[in-house]
Write a structure and sequence with these properties.
Blueprint: H1 3-8, H2 11-14, H3 17-50, E1 53-58, H4 60-68, H5 87-92, E2 95-103, H6 113-130, E3 134-136, H7 140-145, E4 149-156, H8 165-173, E5 176-180, H9 209-221, E6 224-226, H10 232-241, E7 247-251, H11 265-274, E8 277-280, H12 284-287, H13 295-309, E9 314-316, H14 336-345, H15 350-374, H16 405-436
Parallel strand pairs: 1-2, 2-4, 3-4, 4-5, 5-6, 7-8, 8-9
Helix pairs in contact: 3-14, 8-9, 10-11, 13-14
């Protein structure tokens, strides 16, 4: 008989009574934790089925250009390698709508930004019509009523409209319903939060008179003003001008991570007064101030913003496929339920999370449309940006060319040549007539 078998019957006698109590307590704790996790998991799924998530900023279109040259025919939409977004993962993440960004690099400013944006809009419109799980929507009503995953068009960077209000209006007609006033570069009329580019660096550049006209025209059209990527000074200026609520489509809390792309508490307070929305970004550099972060750190941003301005002012703007490093456990769009489960564990209520997931964005969209409706009698703005404020190298001067002595002389010679040619033709016709007689 082995030693273990020989003494197994006496194990109870060998261990003190208190040890058995301790072991039983540990088993109970483990069981409770398993049951709690299971309960939270079911609660999360039930909640997200009831309130499918609206993602305020997704850059899949950018990756389709970089990796596939926008050739949708070569892509399986249900499984796209090397990106964070495809239909299978969106379904796993209980995503109900995405604000797709038509992104154009700042180096295209004053060059071919408009064309590049049109190409990105084209691929977004195509994927949202050709991929059967998607539907393009351009109103809050459409967002509420669609039974598919809704697509909403946005422009990432005001440089895309080339300082032209008519161009802005044409983008609206194509279905664009949101525009970030800047990206990582200044425009001639608004200031970026970034110093990456030197273009249009000048004093008092937060929001020019033309910039105010852009905001006014967006209000008139019913286009959401997005302040992510704008400087704090520009954000303050816009909040003082806009008649409609604004959003930060993918930004986080500066109090939790002091990055220039995040929003300080006093600006959050002003956003609440505006009845606007901050949609929390997941990029590790913005939430964890470094290349690594986790779900708990992201949830801390949500907790802080809620304590500062309330859950009614919060949404989700993951920034998937636009950034490179994401927190552990939030690597792609399929992982959204993990965050919601963490917030449930922190005692966020169903009503609060319903707003974060969906209802807060719809409310802002409706308010923007309500302001549009009140401005129906307002004529489209005909304001033009002064040419001295823009880089005119790629802008055509629409005035007729001034005649020069050389051009006048060439025109005279050409006219005389045409006259002589016409006279010769007449003499030839007369000669033919005489011969026929």
């Amino acid at each position: 008989m082995r030693l273990s078998q020989r003494y197994s019957g006496k194990l109870t006698e060998m261990l003190p009574h208190t040890v058995w109590i301790f072991l039983a307590w540990c088993v109970l704790l483990v069981q409770c934790d398993v049951n709690s996790g299971s309960s939270l998991g079911k609660q999360t799924v039930d909640l997200m089925l009831k309130y499918p998530l609206i993602d305020g900023h997704n850059d899949l279109a950018l990756q389709l250009r970089i990796r596939h040259k926008n050739k949708l025919s070569q892509i399986d939409p249900y499984k796209i390698p090397q990106v964070a977004t495809d239909i299978n993962r969106l379904k796993t993440g209980y995503v109900g709508a995405l604000v797709f960004a038509a992104y154009v690099m700042c180096t295209a400013q004053d060059k071919d930004a408009v064309r590049l944006a049109l190409e990105q809009i084209d691929v977004i419109l195509r994927l949202c019509s050709e991929w059967p799980d998607f539907e393009m929507v351009n109103s809050s009503e459409g967002l509420r009523n669609t039974k598919k995953m809704a697509c909403i068009l946005s422009l990432e960077g005001g440089h895309i409209v080339d300082s032209s209000l008519p161009a802005l209006r044409m983008f609206y007609r194509l279905g664009v319903r949101s525009m970030a006033l800047t990206h990582t570069c200044n425009t001639p009329w608004a200031e970026s939060s970034s110093n990456l580019y030197t273009m249009y660096k000048k004093k008092n550049s937060s929001l020019s008179e033309f910039g105010k006209a852009v905001v006014d025209e967006m209000n008139r059209l019913g286009m959401i003003v997005d302040l992510s990527h704008s400087s704090w000074a520009t954000a303050w200026a816009v909040l003082n001008v806009s008649k409609a609520p604004v959003i930060f489509s993918h930004s986080s809390a500066f109090a939790m991570c002091s990055h220039h792309r995040n929003i300080p508490d006093n600006l959050l307070d002003a956003l609440k007064d505006n009845k606007g929305l901050i949609m929390v970004n997941f990029y590790s550099e913005f939430v964890g101030c470094g290349p690594k972060a986790n779900i708990s750190i992201v949830a801390d941003h949500f907790d802080h913003i809620k304590s500062q301005i309330g859950a009614d002012s919060i949404g989700i703007g993951g920034d998937f496929d636009g950034a490179s490093n994401f927190p552990e456990g939030l690597e792609d769009v399929s992982k959204y339920p993990s965050l919601i489960q963490e917030l449930l564990r922190r005692n966020w209520t169903e009503a609060e999370l319903a707003g974060v997931l969906r209802l807060n964005f719809i409310r802002v969209f409706e308010d923007v449309e309500r302001v549009r409706d009140t401005l129906k009698g307002t004529h489209p703005s005909e304001m033009e940006i002064p040419l001295k404020e823009v880089d005119g190298a790629c802008r055509l001067d629409l005035r007729p060319p001034t005649p020069t002595k050389k051009s006048i002389r060439l025109a005279t010679v050409k006219s005389e040549s045409n006259f002589l040619s016409g006279g010769a033709l007449i003499w030839m016709l007369l000669l033919i007539c005489l011969l026929l007689q």
